[in-house]
Design a protein that fits this description.
Elements (H helix, E strand, L loop, with lengths): L8 H11 L3 H14 L4 H13 L3 H17 L3 H14 L6 H16 L3 H4 L16 E2 L5 E2 L13 H4 L15 H10 E6 L4 E3 L7 E7 L2 E6 L5 E7 L4 E2 L1 H6 L6 E4 L3 E7 H10 L2 H14 L2 H11 L1
Antiparallel strand pairs: 1-2, 3-10, 4-9, 5-8, 5-10, 6-7, 6-9
């Protein structure tokens, strides 16, 4: 029986084949599509998935290995790391992959060398109170429609939002390949469905997160205790560095508006990394200071005082 989410011509056929466990035919169909569009990320991930289901673990890992390199060369650092984590789950025995990917990411960041404040800093926001937001969070953590919205923060242009390396995330900017490799080794990949609560305002925090796919929303409670949306987070954005650097409670609630994949770096991993790469903490600290001075963060602080 065909799965609803595979409706459509070729996609439906591949889905039906997977349901019937006819993996060789599914692989054949995906491979044929890739001949027409060899750089298609979705097809390459799908091919690796079906190969893994068919027991072709080595071939699946090869596909993901090459995809991670291509994404890193194209500047999609966070996506590259996410694919790398999937590949390593399939074949943990492969060595030297972290270092190779770190070198590619480092070269992309060095080539751009554009300060975060010139690319990723949010624009001025309009405080259009009263406009309903699609998602809100109650004090108890339940995701419900809120009554107010602090102000919509427009998404970054596609050329900025899609570059996981120098364009889209400041996470690796300013780090050497060795430091990047250390961070990659300490990161783990997590998946969330839409409407999930990733972190809650006020709770203890011991990790930071980087968005690789999907859309997240950030909410803070105002003086009356009502949750208001203050930021949207997409590919390359990261959050949670305040707690991991200062030990303070979470300053916002983060929910997923769509299915999301996030990279998580725990305080334990960070502490281990900075023993041999102390500058990693400095880079994160510099980013935190710059973001704390941005318009949105100032609005958050002002609202909390109000």
């Amino acid at each position: 029986m065909a799965m609803d989410w595979f409706k459509g011509s070729k996609a439906s056929s591949v889905g039906e084949l997977i349901v019937r466990k006819d993996y060789p035919k599914a692989i054949e169909m995906i491979t044929a599509e890739l001949k027409e569009n060899s750089r298609n990320e979705r097809l390459r991930v799908q091919l690796a998935h079906v190969q893994a289901l068919a027991g072709k673990t080595g071939e699946a890992a090869d596909v993901l290995d090459r995809l991670a390199d291509d994404l890193a060369r194209d500047g999609f650092a966070t996506k590259a790391v996410a694919v790398l984590k999937k590949m390593q789950k399939l074949d943990p025995s492969r060595s030297g992959i972290d270092e190779r990917l770190a070198a590619l990411i480092g070269s992309q960041a060095a080539a751009a060398a554009v300060p975060w404040v010139d690319q990723g800093a949010p624009p001025e926001i309009a405080l259009d109170l009263g406009e309903p937001s699609p998602i809100g969070v109650t004090d108890g953590g339940e995701v419900v429609p809120p009554s107010e919205r602090l102000g919509h923060v427009p998404s970054r242009p596609a050329t900025q939002a899609k570059g996981g390396g120098a364009l889209g995330t400041p996470l690796f900017r300013g780090m050497s390949p060795g430091e990047i490799a250390a961070v990659i080794r300490g990161i783990r990949l997590l998946s969330f469905g839409p409407g999930s609560i990733v972190v809650s305002e006020g709770e203890p925090g011991d990790s930071l997160f980087v968005v690789t796919t999907g859309l997240c929303r950030a909410f803070v409670r105002n003086a009356t205790g009502r949750s208001m949306e203050v930021r949207q987070l997409s590919e390359g954005d990261f959050f949670g560095e305040i707690s991991i650097l200062t030990g303070q409670p979470r300053s916002a609630t983060i929910t997923t508006a769509t299915p999301c994949e996030l990279l998580e770096l725990s305080r334990e991993s960070l502490d281990s990394i900075i023993k041999t790469h102390p500058r990693v903490k400095e880079v994160l600290g510099e980013f935190h200071v710059r973001r704390a001075d941005s318009t949105v963060e100032a609005a958050i602080r002002g609202m909390k005082r109000g």
